[in-house]
Amino acid sequence: MSNPCIICVAITGSLAPGSPWCGAGIGAHQKTLNEWSIAAGGHTRTGLEDNVRLDKDTLAPSNAALVQHVAEMCEQHGRPVATWQQARQILDIPMS
Q1: Rounded to whole angstroms, how far apart are CA atoms 29 and 33?
Q2: CA–CA separation, 31 vs 53, rounded Å?
Q3: What is the Cα–Cα distance from 33 to 62, expressed in whole angstroms?
Q4: CA 65 centroid distance within chain
Q5: According to the model, what pLDDT value does residue 1 have?
Q6: Residue closest to 10 by CA, chosen among 39, 45, 40, 44
Q7: d(CA 48, CA 70)
């Protein structure tokens, strides 16, 4: 069976070439989608609004702890973490 996420990215890329995309998982699936999105060249999001755990036995003490985990994933995949200025540029949001 094909991975539906890969199919979705391929379709999106053919319809809107060069467009940024983001994968987002909820709850127990957040880390899986974070890892997959980073590895596949997309963007990701994280935070307590989507997931309150660092792992199945540990509550996240803060958003910063979840962000640190995703930043480590980015480093493992050779993907730099965007600054807030770069994120606004990627999304074509004015700086003012």
Answers
A1: 6
A2: 10
A3: 20
A4: 15
A5: 44
A6: 40
A7: 13
Instruction: Work out whether strand 43-44 and strand 53-55 pair parallel, antiparallel, or are unpaired.
Output: unpaired
DSSP state of 58: E
Residue with tokens 């974070």: 34
Q: What is the DSSP letter of 88?
A: H
- 11 Cβ partners below 8 Å, 6+ apart? none
Q: Where in the chain does DSSP place strands (E)?
A: 22-23, 43-44, 53-55, 58-59
Query: Which residue reads 């606004």 in tokens?
Result: 88
Kindly report, residue by residue over 32-66, the tens digit of the pLDDT.
Answer: 889 988 988 889 999 999 999 998 899 999 999 99
Give the confidence band of 15 by pLDDT, cuts at 50, 70, 90: confident
Nearest 10 degrees: Cα torsion 71, 74, 79, 85 = -30
